[in-house]
Amino acid sequence: MPELPEVEVVRRGLERWVAGRTVASAEVLHPRAARRHAEGGDALAARLTGRTLEAASRRGKYLWLPLDGRGSALVAHLGMSGQLLVQDAATPDETHLRARFRFADGGRELRFVDQRTFGGLDLDELVPDDADGRVPATVAHIARDPLDPLFDAAAFVRRLRARRTGLKRALLDQTLVSGIGNIYADESLWRARLHGAQPTDELAPARVRELLGHVRDVMAEALGQGGTSFDALYVNVNGESGYFDVSLAAYGQADRPCPRCGRPIVREPFMNRSSFRCPRCQRTPRRPHP
DNA sequence: GATCGGCCCTGCCCGC
DNA sequence: TGCGGGCAGGGCCGAT
């Protein structure tokens, strides 16, 4: 369940171990891994062969590796259970190995492993972004994330308050702000003492800015802890045991005491999944958004 | 145009 | 013991 901090750790690993290397051969081993690529997995692999992966970029939970010439990029999304691993060729194939890239330098190979196949790879053209950079066309609709130096906090506050929806729905909307998933949404709302059903258009701007500060804090803490363990010749996001040592106050803590007030955390259905909150610290708003 | 719900997928875990 | 069902959930797409 990688969210922004976990994806950033992977990006750093790709930058260190993969950037600058030339693809000698590529294999896509499962059709769903390349389902976003209109021409299919074999064509994706063929188009990558002989190309150099120049760098590793990220926006929200999307990763991409610009190819030599910089006109296009290999795009990756880890979904819920995706991993990008830099492995010795002698390492046995993982059970859920979906794609493999071998390099011309004969060094370790890059593997895309994904149990639940929500993740995927694509090869896409780069288009100008909202500043002076370039992003893959499939990523162009994704908002900047709160750790991005060009993230526009004032615009975020304005756009969020213009929505007519619930606060947690807005936080999860990657076209409004990217990188926030269910876990960091719940943790940020808990820190801000806000209910996920709080109507966005009834929130004071100062409260939105305060919430944004908590989003940044919880992500920065997770990134700080995740980054320290990342020193091996190995790029890893573990969907099962991930989330490093970030101590979760609300998410997944049903029936455990709220670290702030001691009242048991409650679990509630939300968009076919779950939300966790403290019923005392995060009171239901007078007019909750359904 | 904005918002919302359904769907994709597999492994684990729980209850019967 | 075995099996069925619930659950995890990001993003796309169609419906409203």
Folded structure, characterized:
- The protein has 290 residues and is of the alpha+beta class.
- It has two domains: 4-139, N-terminal domain of MutM-like DNA repair proteins (Alpha-Beta Barrel), CATH 3.20.190.10; 153-231 and 243-277, Helicase, Ruva Protein, domain 3.
- The protein contains six helices and twelve strands.
- It has helices at 4-17, 41-48, 153-162, 167-172, 182-192, 205-228, and strands at residues 21-28, 52-53, 57-59, 62-66, 72-77, 82-87, 97-103, 109-114, 120-128, 134-136, 266-270, 273-277.
- The strands form three sheets. The chain has a five-stranded antiparallel beta sheet. A five-stranded antiparallel beta sheet has the order 3-4-5-9-10.
- A hairpin with a 2-residue loop joins strand 11 (266-270) and strand 12.
- Helix 1 (4-17) crosses helix 6, helix 3 packs across helix 6 (205-228) and helix 5 (182-192) crosses helix 6 (205-228).
- The longest helix has 24 residues, at 205-228.
- It is elongated and about 60 Å long.
- The relative contact order is 0.15.
- Mean pLDDT is 88; it is low at 228-235 and 237-245.
- The structure holds a DNA duplex (16 and 16 nucleotides).
Report the total helices: 6
Q: What is the end-to-end distance?
A: 26 Å
How many distinct beta strands? Answer: 12
- Going by CATH, the homologous superfamily of the largest domain would be MutM-like, N-terminal
Q: What is the fold-level CATH name, i.e. the topology of the largest domain?
A: N-terminal domain of MutM-like DNA repair proteins
Radius of gyration: 20 Å
| Low-pLDDT regions | 228-235, 237-245
Based on the coordinates given, report the CATH architecture of the largest domain.
Alpha-Beta Barrel
* SS strand fraction: 15-25%
Overall number of domains: 2
> What is the average per-residue confidence, as pLDDT, rounded to a whole number?
88
- Can you write the helix and strand succession as a string? HEHEEEEEEEEEHHHHEE
CA-based shape: elongated
> How does the helix and strand content classify structurally?
alpha+beta
Could you give the order of strands across the largest sheet? 2-1-7-8-6
CATH class of the largest domain, please? Answer: Alpha Beta
Q: Biggest sheet, in brief? A: 5 strands, antiparallel
Helix content percent band: 25-40%
